[in-house]
Amino acid sequence: MPKHFAVIGNPIEQSRSPELHHAFAKDQGIELQYDKRLAALDGFQQSVEDFFAEGGLGLNVTVPFKEQAFALCTQLSQRATIAKAVNTLWIQDGILHGDNTDGQGLVNAITALGWPLKNSRILILGAGGATRGVIYPLAQAGAQSIQIANRTVARAQQLVEDLQTSVGTAQLRASALDQLHGEFDLIINATSASLTGDALHLPDDLQFQYAYEMAYGKASSFLDQAAQRGVEYSDGYGMLVGQAIEAFDIWHAVRPELKKFL
Ligand code: ATR
After folding, report:
1. N or C: lower Cβ tally within 10 Å for the chain?
2. Quaternary state and partners of this protein (predicted)?
């Protein structure tokens, strides 16, 4: 029986993780089985325990269980501790380990696009879990400043307060989404607006060179506006591939090349 992995979530049908992990495995000459696993909304812990009890080796965790996965782990990476969310689980020495590869996946995707992060001025739209997961890796990649703009400004302020001590010399700021202005190198849309089909309006006097949308496979008013301005832009497929490569590296100690799978 090949080594067994899975992605767990609810819903799970839409997940592209199995095809990515099977493609990486083929590329690296590794034999494995990677399934989708639907957990009941109140049955996440049981499903995780069953998977590992059946001999499963690693789990990716997706919506809405990343915070629950964080709470289950005995051993956490630094970036998962800061993100307060886990997307990669495995057992080592009989203990449940958790990591969060989303932020590094984003950094790797942006780097593969050739967009500079070192000394960059970054604006992130949204202050939910998606934003929390990427601040520390962006700061580690050398961002000079990171402004978090949110519809509910208090949430952005809370995030800045929580993460201030984790970002080294990077400057963290909070602002309201409807009062955006100034000049940035990169804007990242980490709101769930594209997932729900809501429009986001970027003011005319907001200046930026690069626009990254974390969602993929959806219409995005954010990317439409970036395209109209003639700046470079990308949807979030590269981030998905990037986080999957990081998880693959944790489990198999090899790194498939991101550009091969875009
Ligand atoms: P996730 O974990 O994916 O980040 P979340 O915690 O529900 O999801 O956060 C969603 C983010 O998208 C929030 O920052 C939310 O803003 P609020 O905190 O004000 O709710 C933002 N968001 C969702 N729909 C939006 C919209 N139509 N316009 C602007 N921001 C939106």
Report:
1. N
2. Homodimer.
Pocket test for ligand 1, best of 67, 180, 191, 200 (most atoms within 8 A of CB): 191
103-238 is classed CATH 3.40.50.720:
yes
Report the catalytic residues: 66
Q: Residue 179, class by beta-carbon neighbours within 10 Å (0-12 exposed, 13-18 middle, 19+ buried)?
A: exposed
CA distance 221 to 218: 10
Identify which of 173, 63, 175, 83 has the alpha carbon closest to the alpha carbon of residue 136. 83
pLDDT by 10-residue block (mean), the chain, 262 residues: 96 96 98 98 98 98 97 98 97 97 98 98 97 97 98 98 96 95 97 91 95 95 97 98 98 98 96
Residue nearest to atom 22 of ligand 1 (CA): 191
Provide the whole-model pTM: 0.96
Pocket probe for ligand 1: among 151, 187, 188, 201, the residue whose CB has the most ligand atoms within 8 Å is 151
If you measure from the C-alpha of residue 131 to the centroid of ligand 1, how many angstroms do you get, rounded to a whole number?
A: 10
